Amino acid sequence: MNTYLHDFFFTVYPYICLAVFFMGSLARFDRDQYTWKSDSSQMLRAGLLRWGSNLFHVGILFLFFGHSVGMLTPHALYEPFITPAQKQLLAIVAGGVAGFICFIGLSMLLWRRLFDPRIRLTSHRTDIAILIILWVQLTLGLITLPFSLSHADGGVMMILADWAQRIVTFRPLAANLIGLAWPYKVHMVLGMTIFLLFPFSRLVHVWSGFASITYVLRPYQLVRARRLNLPEGHNAPRRVL
Predict the structure, then answer these.
(1) Are 152 and 85 in contact (CB under 8 A)?
(2) Is the separation of the CB atoms in 47 and 116 below 8 Å?
(3) Which of 47, 89, 126, 206 lies 20 to 30 Å from 157, alpha-carbon distance?
(4) CA 178 to chain centre
(5) Model confidence pLDDT, tens digit, residues 33-86
(6) Nearest to residue 127, comparing CAs of 200, 20, 47, 209?
């Protein structure tokens, strides 16, 4: 990869994607709240949806939080408990299982969108495009597993974590990534691009998923029955002798 392109993609591009991700999501919520949904096609045909959706969501949530915790946790916090090599092996095994589950579910959803005539007719082009992009991203992630196994000392994981932590602390440094194998770099660039496309696709419903946690904290609703033609006082508490 050209040096200038390398510096752009791993120094400037992350901030462009994050800015569009946050500001674009806010603008869409403010201007087009009626489009803030996932456009479910369950009513047209359930079929593969139940299995595909469950496998995909379980896998993708595990991968998202696994990547977030694994990449953004400072080494000093886990160093007393686990070595970089052990952490990388754990990430390979757990991430590989979750990635395979997610890949199966996403393949089912993509097959359904592409080859079911009823679903294809009602699907937006952006729906199909984002599923294809996610499928390619998952494939690249699975391709990186053999490369990670060949560097079992945890060195690659440390390089990636250092880059990610420098991005979030506004101290970008792309020089350490130059020697990485191409699947890592393409996987990272495509992952950032997904954040860039996030506000313009059905992926915005992810925000609603996180917001649904507030339902656990809200007070219970009081539901009172309204029955007609019943004598007055029928709902009064009875005296127990």
Answers:
(1) yes
(2) yes
(3) 206
(4) 26
(5) 777 666 655 544 556 777 888 899 999 999 999 999 999 999 888 888 899 899
(6) 200
- Longest alpha-carbon distance in the chain: 89
Would you state the structure tokens that stand for residue 88, as one six-digit string? 């990388």
Residue 227 tokens, joined? 């029955």
Q: DSSP assignment, residue 204?
A: G
Give the separation between CA 26 and CA 238, rounded to whole angstroms. Answer: 53
The span from the CA of 153 to the CA of 218, in Å, is 47
* Angstrom distance (rounded) from CA 126 to CA 130: 6
pLDDT tens track for 12-47: 999 999 999 999 999 998 887 777 666 655 544 556
Residue with tokens 């984002």: 130
**Paired tokens of 96:** 């590989």
Token pair belonging to 74? 């400072």
Q: The tokens of 136 are what?
A: 């390619």
Joined tokens for residue 122: 């009602």
Residue 208 one-letter amino acid: S
Tokens standing for residue 201: 């696709």
